[in-house]
Amino acid sequence: MAHRSSIDPLFRGGVPVGIEEVLADRDERATLERRVLERHPDKALIVATLNIPGPIKYTPGLDDLFGSGADRLMAHFLDASIYEDRRRATGCTLFALTNEDPLSAKRRAVAFEDEDALGRLFDVDVLRAGCASALSRVGLGMLPRTCLVCDCPAKECARSRRHSLEELYGAIRRIYETALGGAADARA
Ligand SMILES: [Zn+2]
């Protein structure tokens, strides 16, 4: 069969975003996070995003993937209320508030990232009022994230651009298919 597809189906239908858009989105997100925590200083704010390399951050396939993973994440936080479920060209973000202690919320978030079949594709931050930065895995004595393709620390592979985008896309699709029991669109 001829090799006809230049891009993995999960990443079709997306519009590449530039660094300016990504940075502007990040600023806006930080402002929103501060505002929410000012209003709810007694709660912890959970911010979940997809960890997607490359310039395409949003497609119909990624929207579905995010929705499935966000549902599974929220099942770990039964008391949490969704503040905003945002789907943009710059990516999907779920903001949710919990009464849980921030440290135990972060442990729960890391357990999702490490143990749920879709967790590897998510970054789940936990923020609390009065602190500019999110709680970190390493600060809590937990291991750093590993690469989706090999088992090296993810930051090393990202910094050295060890893997091609095609390789990373393939790894992401395999994780998604495995999580859904092969139900994801695998036609390529
Ligand atoms: Zn790697």
From TrEMBL:
A Gene Ontology biological process in which this protein takes part is: prosthetic group biosynthetic process
The record ties this protein, via Pfam families, to: CitX (PF03802)
Sorted keywords for this record are: Nucleotidyltransferase, Transferase
The UniProt transmembrane annotation reads none
Tell me what reaction this enzyme catalyses.
apo-[citrate lyase ACP] + 2'-(5''-triphospho-alpha-D-ribosyl)-3'-dephospho-CoA = holo-[citrate lyase ACP] + diphosphate
The superkingdom of the source organism is: Bacteria
Q: Which GO terms describe its molecular function?
A: holo-citrate lyase synthase activity
Q: What is this protein called?
A: citrate lyase holo-[acyl-carrier protein] synthase
**What organism is this sequence from?**
Coriobacterium glomerans (strain ATCC 49209 / DSM 20642 / JCM 10262 / PW2)
> What taxonomic classification does the UniProt entry list for its organism?
Bacteria, Bacillati, Actinomycetota, Coriobacteriia, Coriobacteriales
